[in-house]
Each structure stands twice: as C-alpha cells, then as structure tokens.
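User: quick one
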Amino acid sequence: MENKEIIEKIRFNVVQGRLEKEDEGYDEGLEGQPAVKELIEEAIQSKVDPKSIITAGLSVGMEEVGERYEKGEYLIPDMLASAEAVGMAMDILAPHLSAADVHGKGKFLIATVEGDLHDIGKNIVAIMLKGAGYEVIDLGTGVATERIVDIVKEDPPDFLGLSALLTTTMDEMRKVIERMQEENLDSRVKVFIGGAPTSEDFAKRIGAYAYCRDAFHALDILKKLEG
Amino acid sequence: MEETYRSGTLIKPYERLSKEQVELIDKTSLEILNDPGISCYNEEAVDLFTKNGAKAEKGNGFWNLRVPEKVVRDAVENAPSRVKLGARKEENALLLDAKVPLIYFGSGSEANTWLDVEMERFKKVGGDMEVDIPQFKTCRGSVSLLCRAARISEQLEHLDFFIRPVNIQDEGITEENHDVNKFFASLNNITKHVQAGLTSLNQLDNVIKMAEIIVGGKANLRENPIISFITCLFKSPLQMVEDTTQKSIEVVKRGMPLVISSSPQGGSTAPIKEAGMIAQINAEILCGITLAQLVSEGAPVLYGSVPVRSRMDDLHDMYGAPETAQYNLDCVQMARYYDIPCYSTAGVADSKVPGIEATVEKLFSHLSVATSGAQYIHYAFGLLDRTNTFCPVQAVLDNEQIGSIKRYLRLPMVSQSDCEESLKQIKKVMASSNRLYARFVRKELHLGNVSQPYRFESRDMEDRVISKALKSLTELEERPRSRLPDETVDEIYDCIPGILSCIRDI
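Assistant: Done. Structure below.
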C-alpha cells in the first residue's frame, strides 16, 4: 500500500472509530477490514513518517470527528471510539516518535482524589486528551495526596487533572494544591479540576488553574493554551 | 404473495386474573345471559336468537331474552381469532391475532371539543423575569378540524390506526350526511386504517361504496378492508338497543369488520366491584358477538371493551382511576380466553388541559393496558376531559409516551449470541485502562436499540414541554399530505351524495 493510501485509511478509520479489525464502524459493513491498530502497524513496517501519520491521519481524522459531533451527527460514544483509536495509535507510535523528533502536546497527569472511587468522568477526559495528542498518565482512583505530589515532584507534567464526585472528597483537591504550593510545584504545573460538586468558584478558591465542566471544556481550555 | 403488515410491538402479557378467576367470570357472564337475561329492543335479533335456542318473553317495547350457554359457546367458537384491518397504504394494514399479544395504539373518540394551545409570554409583576405559559382555546369540532386531526395522525409514528377523535358539527352536516363526510374527511387525509361508528344506517352502503372506489372494487375491499365499524349494541346494564343492534346486523351482513363494543360505568351502569363489572361487560360483549355469528358465521369481530369507573362526586367517567385500568386488563384476558382479538381502551385523561395531571393519568393506563397485550388499544391519543376534548398538542405528547412504552415492552434481547457478544465486550473493557463501555454502545445505537432522551426535555430550570410539543406539532403539520388521487376524489363526489364540497380542498 502507498504511504498516502495508508494515511488516508488511518484517517478514515479514526473517523469510523475503529480500533481493531473486528470492530464495527459508524458506517456499516467495515467489520473484518484492517482498522487503526493494523494500519498503524503496517505504516511503521512500511516506514511511513510518524509525523505524517499524526498530522495527516490521526489529527485530521479527529478534526472531522469533532465537526461531526458539533453538527449533532456524532454522539459521545462515537467521539470516544475515535479518541480511543487515536490514543491506541499514539501508544503504538510512542517508541518511534522521539527518533523521528516528534513531540506531543504535553504530559497530562490525571487522578481521582483520595477517598473517591468514581472515575467515569476522569476516564472520558483521559480518552479525549489522549485522542487530542496529549501524553496521559492515569493514576487511577482514590489516589492519596502525597502520592500525587510525589509523582509530580519526580517528573513534573505540564498539567495535573484532579477529579472528584463527592462533596466529602472535593476538599482533597485543595490539599493537593496546597502541598504543591509548599513544594513550589504550582507555578510549573497547571492544575485542572472537574467533577459534579466542583465549580468555577471552587476552582478559584482553592487556587486551581482551571475548572472544567466536561472533557470538551477541558479540550477548549487546552486549545487556547496551545495558541 | 406474502402480505405485509404494520409492525406492532410483541409483548409478554401480564395476566392479572388467574385461570380460575377467568373461568369464574366466564361462568358468571353466561349465567347472566340466561338469568336475568337481556332486554332486547331489536326484533330481528330476537328472531335470530330464538331460532337458535334462546327464549324470548315480550315486555313493554322489548323482549326479555334468555340465552342459554350452548348458544353463546357455539357462536363464540365461530368468531375468527384473526382479523385483518386494511389500510390505504397496504403496509399500514393491521393483522390482529387473538393468539399473538402484538399491540397497536390508535385514536378515538368523537370528542365534541377541540383544544388549541398557544404560548404567551408573561412578565413578573415588579420584576424582570419572563416566562412562557400555555393558553388554551376551545372550539366545536368541525369537518376542517377532522381533516386536520387525520393529517396529524398520519404523521404520528406511534399511531397505528385512526378513529376520528373529533365530532363534526358544521352547518350543513345532518344525520343523513354525517357518515359520508366523516369517512371522506378521514380517508382523504390518512393512509392508516380508518374506523368509526355509524350515525345513520341509511349511509352504510354509501360509506362502503366510498371505500370500494378507493381500493378499486368490492373484491379488493374484501381483501383490504380499509374501513371498519364500531357498534355499541348495549346500553348498560344489559339492554340491547334497537338502533345499534340493527347497524351491527347490517355491517355483518356486508362482511365488514366490526367492533362489538360495550362501555358500562362501574358504580352506575355496572357493579363497581371488579368481578361484577367484568362479568356484566363480558356478558354484553359475548351476547353481541353471538348475534354477529348468528347473522353470519365467521363474521370478523373484535371484542370491544370500554369499561370505566364512575366518580362518586358527580357520577361522571373516571378514566384515571386505578380500577378503570384493572377493568380493562381483565377484559383483555377474557378476550384472549375466547380467542378473539381485543379492542381495548387506554390513555384518556380526566384533566381538562395538557400538563402534569394529564400525563399522570395517561401514563397510568397507557402502560398498564399495554402490558395486557391487547391487540388494538383505542382512545390513546389526545383525549382530555374524559372523552370530551381532543387536543392535538396532547396527541403529540401521547405519541412520545406511547413510543417509550412500545420500547419498554419489547421482548428481552437475551440470546446465546447476545451473551457471547457481551462476554467478549466485558473482557475487552476489563483489559482496557479506561473501563468504559461507551464505544460499544455505537452498534446498538445505530440499530435503534438505544432510546433517546425525552424529546421535549428542558436543559434548564424552565419546563418547556408544552411549547416544545407545540413546535413539534407545527413541524408535523408542515409535512407533505397523503391525499387521495384527484380522479378517486372526483369519482367519490360523483357517486356518493352529501359530501360537502369544501372537504376536498381542506
């Protein structure tokens, strides 16, 4: 297959939200055909430039997905399927990116705070960020404040995302930010918070960089930062 | 060629009565028909019954008719268990099979009043807050409104058959031309099955002729009966009236499908107790079905049950009462016991206007009666103020509600392959970092297996259900119409006297 053709197929399958060949797409009759995973592997074998795969395949595909979502043609499951496909592609491509001098949009550490096991929202944000080209490190749920601070200290990410669903656990976010201030990490790492009980006011009160209503809101804020 | 029918919802019926209770009701109903018997005001019916073994004793203007069990059993045995109700668009035809709990919903019931809704903006006194509040305007039913009701009903996706929801009371409409006008106004605006009562027996042949013109002749009408009739033979309790009984006899003689309907009111014209109400209405319907089969063996009839409880403060109907729903559920089981398709009743609100009360009352019976597996559920769209008012905005709301009920009652999708597919999915998700099933929703979403949010929901603190339903109604009414071809309309006007000239242009 020509490089251009592989990239085009990657784009198409991102739009279709197909990770593996057994997946159905948005359109009918695609099951069994190579999907993003198989195509990326083929592209690597064929020595297609990873930068082109990302810019002309994955990113263009995700842009189209975003447009379809805006028009109401796609729903959240369609969006997530595509983002997941891109995330998986980025995982496969990761070892080849530094060699090709390709840099991601940044590192995003994400966690649900201590005492809280809710993770649907956090997981959606993680999928969408990965799909948008961020390197996402998901620490999971109920993550202790000290553990978050230690990881941030060890290898500071560009962004830290904190999630909580309970009014009883949201205060953990304040504790994380306070500890980061004590360790002088707050100026290097932008803290995003989200979750049902949180708000713009709360974010301001505890010194978070941004409050995110949902995954799309988070992406909007990041896009503005990208300039 | 295999016939196609409108898709209904196949359900697993809920049976309120035990087998023993059904048999008890059956026994009691047959005892009622034998003693005290019925008061029959129609001589031809008396002749038919007595020739077949019933006993009649002349009273003052009526006969006391005692019908032995065997007469009823033999006749009911002859009633078909499957009845086809045709339609202008053949894919809208319905096949009602007593053995199959496939449910359809339709309209009714000749309300005299039409209720229009308009939204008006109000401003808070001494403040800036503004809010939209529905305003209601009533008018008398007319030919033009009936045409409009048929056009709206054509567009309501969950309305499976059409019984005119509004009575026509225009100047120029008389007892003599009432039937031809109401049938033409309906048939010219809807491609679904059209059913109605008959105002004047003199017009029966004209109405049938009209249907024959539409389908292309007698034989075609027999194959595709695009119209059928409703007759309420009984004035409860147990009085078989002259007029409607004769209409039933004549409809059956002409081979057209017929609903044998009875509508007693628990607490006034029937016992309020469930056992008594069901035994009486069942006796009345069985007696009507017996008559139809005596007129013509194998006559296509529906078991028409419209029981309702009365209010104790004014003895009016009380459709929102739990007992009304119970009565209806029981009747569906009785119809199934006799292997006759059931014409049942649900969705009438006692409330005078659309809103919370109407929704509560309607949901209660829409859902409960649907669970019974009644093949043909009428009164389900737009009826308010018992059956006195038809409101098109309410019909749009009912359409949405019935759509949800149809989805809710669908048979479970749990097969070997469903379980295998689910297991595979669960394993995949558990192996992923995000543990989300969202992307696997897509297949079900595209297959139409995932319900959508309530169509008239608000995302903020203001309830906009009625204004959104009103907007939806406007959109429905702007869609292209499904009128009869001009040449068919010309032929109808040439052959059938009495149709108002204005109807063809409405």
